[in-house]
Amino acid sequence: NDSKYDVKIGLPALEVPLAFPQATPASTFPPCASDYYQFDDLLTSEEQNLRRRVRAIMEKEIAPIMSEYWEKAEFPFHVIPKLADLRVAGGTIKGYGSPGLSVTGSAI
């Protein structure tokens, strides 16, 4: 649709970054400034490694493109193999190619 109006309600499309600059997403995630509740101390070394791996992929592959895909209401299917490499799909299920994560690891 080339129209600058929303077909459903007939109003001009909202330019979110212009209307709400504070809602403009960052291209990277901010570093964790503190661990007030000392959550990291509760994680196993495997869970800490999982958190680092997921964050690295999110910063490198997802954050730089997420705004573009969000605005176009499209899904970046080309990132699925990279997400699959994280081996987190299937969460706590063991076997059948699933990682058998802890409940905490699955939540991360």
From TrEMBL:
Q: Name one GO cellular component term.
A: peroxisome
User: What positions does the domain Acyl-CoA dehydrogenase/oxidase N-terminal occupy?
Assistant: 44-107
What the entry lists under InterPro entries is as follows: ACX4-like (IPR045008), AcylCoA_DH/ox_N (IPR013786), AcylCoA_DH/ox_N_sf (IPR037069), AcylCoA_DH/oxidase_NM_dom_sf (IPR009100)
Q: Report the protein name in the record.
A: Acyl-coa dehydrogenase protein
Which terms does the record give in the GO molecular function aspect?
A: acyl-CoA dehydrogenase activity; flavin adenine dinucleotide binding
Renumbered to this chain, the signal peptide range is: none
Example GO BP: fatty acid beta-oxidation
Which lineage ranks, top first, belong to the organism behind this chain?
Eukaryota, Viridiplantae, Streptophyta, Embryophyta, Tracheophyta
Q: Which species is this record about?
A: Thalictrum thalictroides (Rue-anemone)
Stored SUPFAM superfamilies = Acyl-CoA dehydrogenase NM domain-like (SSF56645)
